[in-house]
C-alpha cells in the first residue's frame, strides 16, 4: 500500500470512529445507559494516554532488553513542563519545547 | 453571556474558543507538514476528525507507520471522552429532529461542550440547535483555516528536525498531560499523580516486550483499570 493510500485510509478510519463517538450517545441515549464502572474507567483515559505518549518518547526501545534514556528529549522536557505550568497555553508550550530541543541539538552539535 | 439562543449569539460567544483553536491548529498544520503529510491531507484530517490532541497522536503514529487498525483504536480511545460529553449534553437537545441532532453532535468538542454547559445556567436548562451550531461552527472553520495555513507555512522550513520541530508533538503531550492534571475536577490530584507514575513504570518495562505504539494502547487499558481499582480501594 502506498504512503498516500495508507495515510488517507487511516484518516478516514479515525474520522469515522470519532464521528460515531460524537453522534451515537445522542442517538442511543434514550435506549441505553452506560454503567457507572464504564464511565469511571473512561475518566482515566486522558491522563494515562497523554502521559504514556510523553514517557514513550523519553526512551529508545530495544526489544528484549530494557530501553535506554533519550537524553535530549528528557532534558527538553524540563523547560517544556515549566512553560506548561506557567503559561497553560498550548501554543506557548509547543514553542518552548521546540526551541529547547533546538538549543540542545545546537549545543550537542548534531 | 445571556439567555439569547440565536445562531448569532452562539457564534459570538464562541470567539474565545476560536482564538485558542487558531494557535493549536496552526501548530498542528506545522507539525503535520514536518511529519511529511501534505496540506490537503492535513485539511482533510482536521475536517473529519476535528479533535486536536487525537490528531497530534495520529500524526506521530503515522510517522512510525503503525498498523491502520492500531491507530484507529488509539484514536477511538483518546476520543472516547466525547461519548461522556455527549451523554451529558444530549438531554438538553431531546426536542430536536434526527438530522439536526446529528449535525450538532458532529461538531461537539471539549470546548463547545464547556460553553454549552455554562450557557444552560442562563437559559433555565434550554439549548437550541441554532445556538449550538453557531457556537460550534466558528471554532470548526477557524480550525480548518489555521490547519491549512500551518501546513503551508510548515513547508517553508527546510530540514525542520535541526530546529527541534519533531519535539512539537512531545511538547504537546507534556502540555496536555499537565492541563488535564490541572483542570480535571473529577479525579483527586494524588490519584492522578499515582497514575502518571504507573504510566511511566509500565512504559519503561513494557518496552522490553511490546513494540512501538501498541504499547500505548496496552498501557492505557491497564492504567485505566488500575485507576478504577485504586479509586475504589483508597479514595
TrEMBL record, chain A:
<feature type="transmembrane region" description="Helical">
    <location>
        <begin position="80"/>
        <end position="108"/>
    </location>
</feature>
<protein>
    <submittedName>
        <fullName>AzlD domain-containing protein</fullName>
    </submittedName>
</protein>
<keyword id="KW-0812">Transmembrane</keyword>
<feature type="transmembrane region" description="Helical">
    <location>
        <begin position="41"/>
        <end position="60"/>
    </location>
</feature>
<dbReference type="Pfam" id="PF05437">
    <property type="entry name" value="AzlD"/>
</dbReference>
<keyword id="KW-1133">Transmembrane helix</keyword>
<keyword id="KW-0472">Membrane</keyword>
<feature type="transmembrane region" description="Helical">
    <location>
        <begin position="6"/>
        <end position="29"/>
    </location>
</feature>
<dbReference type="InterPro" id="IPR008407">
    <property type="entry name" value="Brnchd-chn_aa_trnsp_AzlD"/>
</dbReference>
Automatic annotation (TrEMBL), chain B:
<feature type="transmembrane region" description="Helical">
    <location>
        <begin position="163"/>
        <end position="181"/>
    </location>
</feature>
<keyword id="KW-0472">Membrane</keyword>
<feature type="transmembrane region" description="Helical">
    <location>
        <begin position="129"/>
        <end position="157"/>
    </location>
</feature>
<keyword id="KW-0812">Transmembrane</keyword>
<feature type="transmembrane region" description="Helical">
    <location>
        <begin position="193"/>
        <end position="210"/>
    </location>
</feature>
<feature type="transmembrane region" description="Helical">
    <location>
        <begin position="43"/>
        <end position="63"/>
    </location>
</feature>
<keyword id="KW-0813">Transport</keyword>
<dbReference type="InterPro" id="IPR011606">
    <property type="entry name" value="Brnchd-chn_aa_trnsp_permease"/>
</dbReference>
<feature type="transmembrane region" description="Helical">
    <location>
        <begin position="216"/>
        <end position="234"/>
    </location>
</feature>
<feature type="transmembrane region" description="Helical">
    <location>
        <begin position="14"/>
        <end position="31"/>
    </location>
</feature>
<protein>
    <submittedName>
        <fullName>AzlC family ABC transporter permease</fullName>
    </submittedName>
</protein>
<keyword id="KW-1133">Transmembrane helix</keyword>
<feature type="transmembrane region" description="Helical">
    <location>
        <begin position="69"/>
        <end position="90"/>
    </location>
</feature>
<dbReference type="Pfam" id="PF03591">
    <property type="entry name" value="AzlC"/>
</dbReference>
<comment type="similarity">
    <text>Belongs to the AzlC family.</text>
</comment>
<keyword id="KW-1003">Cell membrane</keyword>
Amino acid at each position: 500500500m502506498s504512503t498516500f493510500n495508507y495515510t488517507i485510509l487511516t484518516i478516514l478510519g479515525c474520522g469515522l470512529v470519532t464521528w460515531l463517538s460524537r453522534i451515537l450517545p445522542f442517538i442511543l441515549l434514550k435506549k441505553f445507559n452506560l454503567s457507572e464502572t464504564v464511565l469511571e474507567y473512561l475518566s482515566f483515559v486522558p491522563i494515562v494516554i497523554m502521559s504514556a505518549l510523553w514517557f514513550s518518547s523519553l526512551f529508545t526501545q530495544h526489544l528484549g532488553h530494557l530501553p535506554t534514556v533519550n537524553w535530549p528529549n528528557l532534558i527538553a522536557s524540563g523547560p517544556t513542563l515549566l512553560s506548561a505550568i506557567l503559561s497553560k497555553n498550548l501554543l506557548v508550550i509547543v514553542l518552548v519545547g521546540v526551541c529547547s530541543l533546538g538549543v540542545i541539538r545546537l549545543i550537542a552539535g548534531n | 453571556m445571556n439567555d439569547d439562543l440565536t445562531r448569532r449569539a452562539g457564534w459570538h460567544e464562541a470567539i474565545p474558543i476560536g482564538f485558542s483553536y487558531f494557535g493549536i491548529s496552526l501548530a498542528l498544520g506545522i507539525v503535520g507538514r514536518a511529519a511529511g503529510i501534505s496540506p490537503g491531507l492535513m485539511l482533510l484530517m482536521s475536517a473529519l476528525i476535528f479533535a486536536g490532541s487525537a490528531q497530534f497522536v495520529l500524526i506521530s503514529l503515522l510517522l512510525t507507520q503503525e498498523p491502520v487498525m492500531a491507530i484507529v483504536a488509539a484514536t477511538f480511545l483518546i476520543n472516547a471522552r466525547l461519548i461522556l460529553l455527549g451523554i451529558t449534553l444530549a438531554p438538553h437537545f431531546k426536542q430536536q429532529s434526527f438530522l439536526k441532532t446529528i449535525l450538532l453532535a458532529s461538531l461537539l468538542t471539549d470546548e463547545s461542550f464547556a460553553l454549552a454547559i455554562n450557557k444552560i445556567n442562563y437559559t433555565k436548562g434550554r439549548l437550541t440547535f441554532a445556538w449550538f451550531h453557531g457556537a460550534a461552527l466558528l471554532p470548526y472553520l477557524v480550525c480548518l483555516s489555521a490547519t491549512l495555513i500551518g501546513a503551508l507555512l510548515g513547508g517553508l522550513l527546510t530540514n525542520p528536525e535541526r530546529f527541534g520541530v519533531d519535539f512539537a508533538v512531545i511538547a504537546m503531550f507534556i502540555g496536555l498531560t499537565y492541563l488535564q492534571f490541572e483542570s480535571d475536577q473529577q479525579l483527586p490530584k494524588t490519584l492522578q499523580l499515582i497514575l502518571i507514575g504507573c504510566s511511566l513504570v509500565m512504559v519503561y518495562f513494557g518496552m522490553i516486550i511490546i513494540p512501538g505504539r501498541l504499547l500505548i494502547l496496552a498501557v492505557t487499558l491497564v492504567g485505566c483499570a488500575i485507576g478504577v481499582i485504586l479509586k475504589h480501594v483508597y479514595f
